[in-house]
Structures are given as C-alpha cells and as structure tokens.
Amino acid sequence: MRDTVPAPLVQVDGxxxxxxxxxxxxxxxxxxxxxxxxVSFAIQAGETLGLVGESGCGKSTVGRALLRLYEPTAGAVxxxxxxxxKLAPEALRxxxxxxxxxxxxxQASLNPRMTLxxxxxxxxxxxxxxxxxxxxxRVYELMDAVGLNRRFANRFPHEFSGGQRQRIGIxxxxxxxxxxxxCDEPIAxxxxxIQAQVVNLLExxxxxxxxxxxxxxxxxxxxxxxxxxxxVMYLGRIAELSPRDALFSRPLHPYAExxxxxxxxxxxxxARRPRIIxxxxxxxxxxxxxxxxxxxxCPKAFARCHAEKPELQEVEPGRQVACFLYAPQTxxxxxxxxxxxxxQGEYQ
Length: 348
Ligand SMILES: Nc1ncnc2c1ncn2[C@@H]1O[C@H](COP(=O)(O)OP(=O)(O)OP(=O)(O)O)[C@@H](O)[C@H]1O
Hints:
Layout: E1 10-23, E2 28-43, E3 48-52, H1 59-66, E4 74-79, E5 82-83, H2 89-95, E6 99-102, H3 106-109, H4 116-127, H5 132-146, H6 162-174, E7 180-184, H7 192-209, E8 212-216, H8 220-226, E9 229-234, E10 237-243, H9 244-249, H10 254-260, E11 313-316, E12 319-321
Parallel strand pairs: 3-8, 3-9, 6-7, 7-8
Antiparallel strand pairs: 1-2, 1-4, 4-5, 9-10, 10-12, 11-12
Helix pairs in contact: 4-5, 4-6, 5-6, 6-7
The structure holds adenosine-5'-triphosphate (ATP).
C-alpha cells in the first residue's frame, strides 16, 4: 500500500500583493509598492508555520492577503480545499468561520463600547441563528477556554490588562471553531512578563482544538519556541523555508544566516556564531532590485544574483531556499553559476 500524504490545510502559490502608488493632482498610477511579490508555501493541518523578517518585509500583508482582508493582486490561496482568492462575496462570507486572525494590538482591535460578552459573541450573531442564551453559553465556554473569569462577561475592554485583552481577542477568534488562525505579532504589544503566558495559551488551544497557525513575529526566540517550520521573508519574498531546528542551527540563505546570527543561542554547548552585520539599507519595495531582492546587501552575491531572481526551491529534504549558491537553477541570462563567491567584508 502506498503512503498517502494528506493535502495541506493551507496552500499558497505565487501570492502577490501590490499597493498602487498614485501621484500628482491627476492621481496618475506611477508604480506599485510590491509588498508581497510571489510567495508560495504550504501549512499542514495542526502545524505552526512561523513567518519572520525585518519590519516592512511584508509579513502582515501576507497574513491579511491570505484571509482576503486585502484583495491579492495575483496568486492562489487554497484553505481547506477552496481558493480564497477566487471566492465570490457570499461564498467568502460563508468561508470566514474557517479562518480567523489574532491581531497585534488587542486595544485597537476591540470595540471600547462593547462588553466582553458582546465582543466575543459578535461573530456568532453574524454567522449563526443562535438565540441570546445559546450565544451566552458559548461565550462562557470560550472564556473558560482562554482563562477569563465568567464574572467579567459584562465588563468593557479598558477594564482589562493587555494580556487579558489579548485573551478576549483569542476567544473571539475561536468563537466559530476555525481551523486556521493567522496570529499577527500576537504578543508584540504585551509586557515581556506575560508574553509567554499568551504563547502557552495559543499552544494549549492548538493541541486541544487541532488548530493550524501562521505565526507572524519579529521575535525570533518566540518563533523558535512555537513554530514547527519557519519562513524567512526579505523584501516581499521568501528567502528560506526550513524546519525550525534545521534553520536555527544551520541557516542556508545568507539573509537567514545574518538575521539569525543576532539570536542568542540558548544551548551553550553549541558554538556561538559570529554576528553578521549587513551593510546598507533595505531597498524600497516600490523599486526592488532587478536580481535577487537581497543582492544589494548580500555578502555572498555574484554576477548572476544581480541579473535574475532565484526561485524558492528544495535544496535539502524539507528545506527550501531562494539562492543561486544552492541548487543548479537554470537561468535565462546565460550567466553561469559561480563556484566561488565574494565573501569579503561584512562579517565582523
Ligand atoms: N495599505 C498599504 N498601502 C501601501 N503600502 C502598504 C500598505 N500596507 C503595507 N504597505 C507596505 O508594504 C510593505 C510591507 O508591509 P508589512 O506591514 O506587510 O510589513 P511587515 O513585515 O508586517 O512589517 P512590520 O513588522 O513592521 O509590521 C511596507 O513597505 C509597507 O509600507
């Protein structure tokens, strides 16, 4: 009998999200901010995929385009068997319960004039025909699940701490039994002392409810704790997508290497890698480089890197990298792949 690999719960192919730039009195379309420029990945049911990268690299835009909070410019986003990018408005509304988002700033995402019970039951009002009693029962169940005391059901968001407000946001996201949750920097706005509690709660809920997460964060230590695999983004594209331990112990892409060199190694038996300081600034996503998006700062770039964009491809079992240093990608420029690369400078 052949082993059958289950289809991923989330399959993203060639996702692009461009924001048009209009200038002048006539508001002429003069270009686009290429916030996400051809991103592909899959997430298995029950898995957590971490999405990391410097501020502005497109992490949040990927999360929002995935749930069609933005209209993607191009690409397919199949969630639980349906291409979200192609659904008509009513079909998309019916699909919404399956996929939810936990936002960075619980303060900003909760209506200050609504009680906790109203906030958590809002999706139930929209998507079910349950009566008030049944909705309140569900609110209590959800409050239990996220560790909020039922006595607080009639209080307002400002009466809670940041951590408790994030629990309210999580309860609301869970109200309709979603399968997939995009967690967009869910702990970034919280005190360090309570960040771990919220992450532990997300992990417990994942185990109990079989949830699948896209966990967006710039906190590499937290991603190392929670993610099964990690995608490293740079300027709208994925540079490397690898299993968590493989990535943290031996990053392959030069950008991933530089990014992770700043993380403190918790295991003292592992030799500390030298810190890699990258020169220059991240180019504007409105004018990305012609070649590899990282080519202008890459200490290992060679001629081909400045001429064409490498595609993300498997270079070791389970590890995908978009870099001409690995894998013989057939180029269109005729520039042969370099065997040696420039490795001067930037390492300190
Ligand atoms: N609505 C928008 N209109 C125009 N440009 C946008 C819009 N949203 C995001 N951008 C641009 O797209 C790029 C990616 O932004 P995004 O917020 O996705 O990055 P990020 O990696 O999540 O950053 P951060 O960690 O700071 O949230 C940035 O250059 C940003 O300025």
